Amino acid sequence: MWNNKALHICNLHPLTIFLYYMLLFGLLVFMGNPYLYFSVFISSFILSIYFEGIDAINYLKKLSVIALLFVIINPLFSHEGMTIINYFPNGNAFTLESIYFGLGMAVLFLATMFMFKVFSNSMNPDRWVELFGNISPDFSLMISMIFRFINRFKDTYKKIKLVNKDKSVFSCFSMLISYALESSIDTADSMAARGYSLTKRSHLKRHKLRLMDIAVILISIAFLGILIYCNKMNYFNFYYYPKLTLICNDITKYLLPILYIFYSMIPLIYQITEDIKWKFLRSII
After folding, report:
1. What are the Cα distances from residue 74, in Å, to 88, 128, 178, 190?
2. Which of 35, 101, 41, 98 minimizes the C-alpha distance to 236?
3. Dihedral angle computed from the Cα positions of residues 23, 29, 32 and 37, in that order, rounded to the nearest 10 degrees
4. Do 14 and 104 lie in a common domain?
5. Through-space distance between the first and last CA atoms of the chain, rounded to whole angstroms
6. pTM higher than 0.85, yes or no?
7. In the structure, what pLDDT confidence band is assigned to residue 86 with cuts at 50, 70 and 90?
8. Within 10 A of 54 (CB to CB), how many other CB atoms are there?
9. DSSP state of 91
10. What are the pLDDT digits (tens) for 130-146?
Protein backbone atom coordinates (compact mmCIF):
# COMPACT_ATOMS: atom_id res chain seq x y z
CA MET A 1 0.00 0.00 0.00
CA TRP A 2 1.09 3.55 -0.74
CA ASN A 3 -1.10 6.36 0.61
CA ASN A 4 -3.88 3.78 1.06
CA LYS A 5 -3.62 2.82 -2.61
CA ALA A 6 -2.61 -0.62 -3.84
CA LEU A 7 0.94 -0.68 -5.20
CA HIS A 8 0.66 -3.74 -7.43
CA ILE A 9 4.38 -4.35 -7.74
CA CYS A 10 4.15 -5.47 -4.11
CA ASN A 11 2.39 -8.57 -5.44
CA LEU A 12 5.70 -9.74 -6.86
CA HIS A 13 8.20 -11.80 -4.90
CA PRO A 14 10.61 -9.72 -2.73
CA LEU A 15 13.54 -11.28 -4.58
CA THR A 16 12.15 -10.05 -7.90
CA ILE A 17 11.66 -6.51 -6.61
CA PHE A 18 15.10 -6.44 -4.98
CA LEU A 19 16.93 -7.72 -8.08
CA TYR A 20 15.04 -5.35 -10.38
CA TYR A 21 15.81 -2.19 -8.41
CA MET A 22 19.39 -3.15 -7.57
CA LEU A 23 20.05 -3.77 -11.27
CA LEU A 24 18.38 -0.49 -12.17
CA PHE A 25 20.45 1.37 -9.59
CA GLY A 26 23.65 -0.35 -10.74
CA LEU A 27 22.96 0.64 -14.35
CA LEU A 28 22.33 4.23 -13.27
CA VAL A 29 25.70 4.38 -11.53
CA PHE A 30 27.91 2.47 -13.96
CA MET A 31 26.39 3.08 -17.39
CA GLY A 32 26.59 6.87 -17.21
CA ASN A 33 23.97 7.27 -19.91
CA PRO A 34 21.55 10.26 -19.69
CA TYR A 35 18.90 8.31 -21.62
CA LEU A 36 18.62 5.86 -18.71
CA TYR A 37 18.67 8.73 -16.16
CA PHE A 38 15.74 10.43 -17.84
CA SER A 39 13.77 7.18 -18.32
CA VAL A 40 14.06 6.20 -14.64
CA PHE A 41 13.21 9.71 -13.47
CA ILE A 42 10.08 9.99 -15.64
CA SER A 43 8.73 6.54 -14.74
CA SER A 44 9.35 6.97 -10.99
CA PHE A 45 7.96 10.50 -10.98
CA ILE A 46 4.74 9.44 -12.74
CA LEU A 47 4.26 6.63 -10.19
CA SER A 48 4.83 9.10 -7.34
CA ILE A 49 2.24 11.50 -8.81
CA TYR A 50 -0.23 8.63 -9.16
CA PHE A 51 0.03 7.78 -5.46
CA GLU A 52 0.84 11.13 -3.85
CA GLY A 53 -0.56 13.75 -6.20
CA ILE A 54 0.54 17.28 -5.31
CA ASP A 55 2.91 15.98 -2.62
CA ALA A 56 5.10 14.42 -5.32
CA ILE A 57 5.31 17.76 -7.13
CA ASN A 58 6.23 19.53 -3.86
CA TYR A 59 8.89 16.87 -3.27
CA LEU A 60 10.26 17.51 -6.76
CA LYS A 61 10.43 21.25 -6.03
CA LYS A 62 12.53 20.60 -2.93
CA LEU A 63 14.87 18.26 -4.78
CA SER A 64 15.13 20.67 -7.72
CA VAL A 65 16.92 23.17 -5.48
CA ILE A 66 19.67 20.61 -4.81
CA ALA A 67 19.68 19.46 -8.44
CA LEU A 68 20.15 23.06 -9.56
CA LEU A 69 23.33 23.23 -7.50
CA PHE A 70 24.83 20.46 -9.68
CA VAL A 71 24.21 22.57 -12.78
CA ILE A 72 25.65 25.72 -11.19
CA ILE A 73 28.62 24.27 -9.31
CA ASN A 74 30.01 21.89 -11.95
CA PRO A 75 30.99 24.61 -14.49
CA LEU A 76 32.72 26.49 -11.68
CA PHE A 77 35.08 23.59 -10.93
CA SER A 78 35.18 21.65 -14.20
CA HIS A 79 36.69 23.51 -17.15
CA GLU A 80 37.02 20.62 -19.59
CA GLY A 81 35.32 20.65 -22.96
CA MET A 82 35.93 21.98 -26.43
CA THR A 83 32.90 24.29 -26.71
CA ILE A 84 34.02 27.38 -24.80
CA ILE A 85 31.23 29.86 -24.01
CA ASN A 86 33.25 32.41 -22.08
CA TYR A 87 36.10 32.81 -19.61
CA PHE A 88 36.01 33.42 -15.86
CA PRO A 89 37.99 36.37 -14.43
CA ASN A 90 40.74 33.96 -13.34
CA GLY A 91 41.14 32.74 -16.93
CA ASN A 92 39.40 29.35 -16.61
CA ALA A 93 37.08 28.33 -19.42
CA PHE A 94 33.30 28.20 -19.05
CA THR A 95 32.33 25.30 -21.33
CA LEU A 96 29.08 23.93 -22.68
CA GLU A 97 30.14 20.36 -21.89
CA SER A 98 30.48 21.15 -18.18
CA ILE A 99 26.92 22.52 -18.17
CA TYR A 100 25.60 19.35 -19.84
CA PHE A 101 27.52 17.20 -17.36
CA GLY A 102 25.94 19.14 -14.48
CA LEU A 103 22.51 18.64 -16.05
CA GLY A 104 23.19 14.91 -16.36
CA MET A 105 24.18 14.67 -12.70
CA ALA A 106 21.09 16.66 -11.71
CA VAL A 107 18.79 14.24 -13.58
CA LEU A 108 20.73 11.31 -12.08
CA PHE A 109 20.12 12.72 -8.59
CA LEU A 110 16.39 13.16 -9.23
CA ALA A 111 16.10 9.70 -10.80
CA THR A 112 17.87 8.06 -7.85
CA MET A 113 15.74 9.83 -5.23
CA PHE A 114 12.42 9.03 -6.90
CA MET A 115 13.49 5.47 -7.72
CA PHE A 116 14.32 4.76 -4.07
CA LYS A 117 11.05 6.42 -3.06
CA VAL A 118 9.17 3.81 -5.09
CA PHE A 119 11.55 1.08 -3.91
CA SER A 120 11.02 1.91 -0.22
CA ASN A 121 7.24 1.67 -0.70
CA SER A 122 7.60 -1.61 -2.60
CA MET A 123 9.87 -3.28 -0.02
CA ASN A 124 8.19 -2.98 3.36
CA PRO A 125 9.93 -4.30 6.52
CA ASP A 126 8.25 -7.71 6.32
CA ARG A 127 9.68 -8.22 2.83
CA TRP A 128 13.23 -7.56 4.03
CA VAL A 129 12.79 -10.14 6.76
CA GLU A 130 11.33 -12.61 4.26
CA LEU A 131 14.15 -12.03 1.78
CA PHE A 132 17.17 -12.12 4.10
CA GLY A 133 15.72 -13.92 7.13
CA ASN A 134 17.50 -17.21 6.42
CA ILE A 135 20.69 -15.70 5.02
CA SER A 136 21.30 -13.01 7.64
CA PRO A 137 18.57 -12.57 10.27
CA ASP A 138 20.33 -9.67 12.02
CA PHE A 139 20.86 -7.77 8.76
CA SER A 140 17.26 -8.26 7.64
CA LEU A 141 15.96 -7.12 11.03
CA MET A 142 18.21 -4.05 10.99
CA ILE A 143 17.12 -3.03 7.47
CA SER A 144 13.44 -3.58 8.22
CA MET A 145 13.68 -1.50 11.41
CA ILE A 146 15.49 1.31 9.59
CA PHE A 147 12.76 1.55 6.95
CA ARG A 148 10.10 1.35 9.63
CA PHE A 149 11.68 4.07 11.76
CA ILE A 150 12.18 6.46 8.82
CA ASN A 151 8.46 6.58 8.04
CA ARG A 152 7.54 6.52 11.71
CA PHE A 153 9.81 9.43 12.62
CA LYS A 154 8.64 11.41 9.60
CA ASP A 155 5.02 11.08 10.76
CA THR A 156 6.00 11.85 14.34
CA TYR A 157 7.81 15.02 13.29
CA LYS A 158 4.67 16.21 11.47
CA LYS A 159 2.64 15.68 14.65
CA ILE A 160 5.22 17.50 16.79
CA LYS A 161 5.29 20.39 14.33
CA LEU A 162 1.50 20.55 14.30
CA VAL A 163 1.22 20.67 18.10
CA ASN A 164 4.17 23.06 18.62
CA LYS A 165 3.54 25.63 15.91
CA ASP A 166 5.26 28.40 17.89
CA LYS A 167 8.45 26.35 18.36
CA SER A 168 11.47 26.57 16.09
CA VAL A 169 12.62 23.80 13.79
CA PHE A 170 15.53 22.99 16.12
CA SER A 171 13.20 22.63 19.12
CA CYS A 172 10.93 20.26 17.19
CA PHE A 173 13.95 18.29 16.01
CA SER A 174 15.21 18.04 19.61
CA MET A 175 11.82 16.65 20.65
CA LEU A 176 12.02 14.13 17.81
CA ILE A 177 15.49 12.98 18.94
CA SER A 178 14.20 12.52 22.49
CA TYR A 179 11.27 10.50 21.17
CA ALA A 180 13.61 8.39 18.99
CA LEU A 181 15.87 7.53 21.94
CA GLU A 182 12.96 6.62 24.20
CA SER A 183 11.35 4.58 21.42
CA SER A 184 14.62 2.70 20.84
CA ILE A 185 14.87 1.79 24.53
CA ASP A 186 11.24 0.60 24.56
CA THR A 187 11.86 -1.50 21.44
CA ALA A 188 15.02 -3.04 22.92
CA ASP A 189 13.23 -3.90 26.17
CA SER A 190 10.31 -5.39 24.26
CA MET A 191 12.63 -7.56 22.14
CA ALA A 192 14.48 -8.75 25.26
CA ALA A 193 11.18 -9.58 26.99
CA ARG A 194 10.12 -11.68 24.01
CA GLY A 195 13.35 -13.68 24.13
CA TYR A 196 14.98 -12.33 20.97
CA SER A 197 18.05 -14.33 19.84
CA LEU A 198 17.68 -16.88 22.67
CA THR A 199 16.54 -19.68 20.39
CA LYS A 200 16.46 -20.35 16.67
CA ARG A 201 13.60 -18.48 15.05
CA SER A 202 11.25 -19.64 12.33
CA HIS A 203 11.42 -17.98 8.91
CA LEU A 204 8.44 -16.22 7.36
CA LYS A 205 7.63 -17.04 3.73
CA ARG A 206 4.51 -15.48 2.27
CA HIS A 207 5.39 -15.35 -1.41
CA LYS A 208 6.30 -17.88 -4.04
CA LEU A 209 7.95 -17.26 -7.38
CA ARG A 210 5.20 -16.99 -9.97
CA LEU A 211 5.20 -16.68 -13.75
CA MET A 212 5.30 -12.87 -13.57
CA ASP A 213 8.32 -13.00 -11.24
CA ILE A 214 10.19 -15.30 -13.60
CA ALA A 215 9.28 -13.04 -16.55
CA VAL A 216 10.65 -9.91 -14.81
CA ILE A 217 13.84 -11.73 -13.79
CA LEU A 218 14.40 -13.02 -17.34
CA ILE A 219 13.75 -9.55 -18.79
CA SER A 220 16.27 -8.12 -16.32
CA ILE A 221 18.91 -10.68 -17.27
CA ALA A 222 18.30 -10.12 -20.99
CA PHE A 223 18.44 -6.33 -20.56
CA LEU A 224 21.68 -6.57 -18.59
CA GLY A 225 23.21 -8.88 -21.20
CA ILE A 226 22.32 -6.52 -24.05
CA LEU A 227 23.83 -3.54 -22.24
CA ILE A 228 27.03 -5.44 -21.36
CA TYR A 229 27.42 -6.51 -24.98
CA CYS A 230 26.75 -2.99 -26.31
CA ASN A 231 29.18 -1.52 -23.80
CA LYS A 232 31.87 -4.03 -24.74
CA MET A 233 31.37 -3.33 -28.46
CA ASN A 234 31.27 0.45 -27.80
CA TYR A 235 27.68 0.73 -29.02
CA PHE A 236 25.61 3.59 -27.65
CA ASN A 237 28.37 5.01 -25.46
CA PHE A 238 27.84 8.58 -24.32
CA TYR A 239 30.71 10.96 -23.59
CA TYR A 240 30.50 14.45 -22.12
CA TYR A 241 34.18 15.30 -22.60
CA PRO A 242 36.01 16.57 -24.54
CA LYS A 243 32.91 17.02 -26.72
CA LEU A 244 29.37 15.70 -26.44
CA THR A 245 29.48 12.41 -28.34
CA LEU A 246 27.03 9.54 -28.75
CA ILE A 247 28.58 6.49 -30.41
CA CYS A 248 25.89 4.35 -32.00
CA ASN A 249 24.80 2.78 -35.26
CA ASP A 250 21.39 2.78 -36.92
CA ILE A 251 20.13 -0.17 -34.84
CA THR A 252 21.26 0.93 -31.38
CA LYS A 253 20.26 4.54 -32.06
CA TYR A 254 16.58 3.64 -31.75
CA LEU A 255 16.57 0.19 -30.11
CA LEU A 256 18.42 0.95 -26.88
CA PRO A 257 16.45 4.11 -25.94
CA ILE A 258 13.25 2.08 -26.39
CA LEU A 259 14.69 -0.70 -24.19
CA TYR A 260 15.73 1.87 -21.57
CA ILE A 261 12.22 3.31 -21.45
CA PHE A 262 10.50 -0.09 -21.40
CA TYR A 263 12.69 -1.55 -18.66
CA SER A 264 12.50 1.48 -16.37
CA MET A 265 8.71 1.63 -16.77
CA ILE A 266 7.99 -1.99 -15.84
CA PRO A 267 6.52 -0.99 -12.42
CA LEU A 268 4.37 1.69 -14.07
CA ILE A 269 3.18 -0.67 -16.84
CA TYR A 270 2.38 -3.36 -14.27
CA GLN A 271 0.49 -0.84 -12.10
CA ILE A 272 -1.65 0.43 -14.99
CA THR A 273 -2.32 -3.11 -16.26
CA GLU A 274 -3.49 -4.34 -12.86
CA ASP A 275 -5.65 -1.25 -12.30
CA ILE A 276 -7.38 -1.75 -15.66
CA LYS A 277 -7.88 -5.44 -14.89
CA TRP A 278 -9.35 -4.62 -11.46
CA LYS A 279 -11.77 -2.04 -12.89
CA PHE A 280 -12.85 -4.49 -15.58
CA LEU A 281 -13.51 -7.24 -13.05
CA ARG A 282 -15.50 -4.84 -10.87
CA SER A 283 -17.62 -3.81 -13.86
CA ILE A 284 -18.53 -7.44 -14.50
CA ILE A 285 -19.84 -7.98 -10.96
Report:
1. 14, 37, 39, 49
2. 35
3. 70
4. yes
5. 24
6. no
7. confident
8. 8
9. S
10. 777 666 666 667 776 77
Residues 118 and 237 occupy one common structural domain: yes
Which of these three, 144, 170, 202, is where a domain ends? 202
- Pairwise CA distance, residues 72 & 99, whole Å: 8
Q: How far apart are CA 276 and CA 270, in angstroms?
A: 10
**Domain check: are 62 and 121 in the same one?**
yes
Residues 229-245 have pLDDT tens digits of 887 877 777 888 888 88
Tell me the HSE value of 207 on the side-chain side, using a 13 A CA sphere: 21
> Does 116 lie in the same domain as 222?
yes
Distance of CA 82 to the CA centre of its chain: 34
Buried residues in 74-111 as b, exposed as e (16+ CB within 10 A): bbeebbebeeeeeeeeeeebebbbbbbbbbbbbbbbbb
Contact (CB, 8 A) for 248 and 256: yes
- Separation of alpha carbons 238 and 215, rounded Å: 30
Q: What is the pLDDT of residues 7-44, one digit of tens each?
A: 888 889 888 999 999 999 888 888 778 888 998 999 99
Q: How many domains does one find in the chain?
A: 2
Domain shared by 275 and 243, yes or no: yes
Rounded to 10°, the helix 137-163/169-193 angle is 140
* Dist CA 172 CA 41 (whole Å): 33
